[in-house]
Amino acid sequence: MSVFRRFLPLLVIILLAACGPSNAGTAHSTTLYIQDKGSDTIVNLALAWAEKYQVEHPDVSISVTGGGTGTGIAALLNKTTDIANASRQMQAVEIQQAKADGFDPIEFVVARDAIAVAVNPANPVSRLTFQQISDIYSGKINNWTQVGGQDRPIVRLSREVNSGTHVYFRDTVIRRGDAKNKTFFAADTLLLPSSEGIVSELRQNPNAIGYDGLGYIPADLKKIAVARDAGGPYVLPSVATVNDKSYPIARDLYMYTAGQPAGVLKVYLDWIVSSEAQAIVENLGFVPILK
CB-based contacts of 160: which residues, under 8 Å, 6+ apart? Predict the structure, then answer.
């Protein structure tokens, strides 16, 4: 994984342009400007796509900004972006709001990602079950001795609530995919605004546990092998284990548009799922959708 990808910008602007959406998706649009906003998980991938596309299509200007999935979806609902990047699917209430505003949000799966659970390399714990991770993050397990580690308090790290990764981890891991389960993160969980913050804290704190997209966890941290239940198998996150579905914490990554895209916007989205663009997905540590 490149050093470039690990430095997640909260705000990246490729070309300075107007702050509102360009109507790039309209069939009769004369502008070739696309605004792309949302998930911090996707932002560097979206940036790499945009840079590559603009080299091949110099008449197209693409602005990429982060801020989190919630920010991107809010911008789509407010009609201030052409594309909303999301590391979770839109929620029913968000879809209802879009319909009330006169459009159907259109979903595009653009890549896949593993959520890696990681600890400081000094931590002897190397594997956990789904249930143990859920119990750690919900506050039922508070000392590493309860999962085979040293007598140390567990420090929980999480992305902040506006993050689609936070929502996905809560629903899929802490709540075990049960829509009726209302378990939340423990109150003392440290909510950090970026992948860099989680990585930094994990490096400094031997008691910490954190999670993030696989490509954002550097090699000097210890990735945890995860099992669906105590009987195993325990599987490390990788492109291969996401593809063969053996790693249990994996998800799709999305782009949303306000209605069916047209014009330059459609051409760009069609290119994103091409083999050329999906090669960039793999280079940045994500999982291409073509495999």
Answer: 68, 166, 191, 192, 193
16 in a structural domain? yes
Upper half-sphere CA count for residue 164 (Cβ side, 13 Å):
30
pLDDT band, very low/low/confident/very high, at 276 (cuts 50, 70, 90): very high
Which residues form the domain of 162?
A: 114-250
- Helix 43-56 with 263-272: angle, nearest 10 deg: 110
Does 96 share its domain with 168? no
> Rounded distance, CA 152 to CA 181, Å?
29
DSSP readout, 186-235? -TTPEEESSHHHHHHHHHH-TTEEEEEEGGGS-TTSEEPEEESSTT---B
Read off the amino acid at residue 53.
Answer: Y
pLDDT score for 209:
98
Is 95 found in the same domain as 129? Answer: no
Q: What is the mean pLDDT of residues 106-120?
A: 96
What is the CATH classification number for the domain harbouring 87?
3.40.190.10
pTM (2 d.p.): 0.76
Q: How far apart are the C-alpha atoms of 3 and 233, rounded to whole Å?
A: 32
Q: Is residue 206 part of a domain?
A: yes
Residue 44 lies in a domain: yes
| DSSP labels, 41-78 | TTHHHHHHHHHHHHHH-TT-EEEEE-S-HHHHHHHHHT
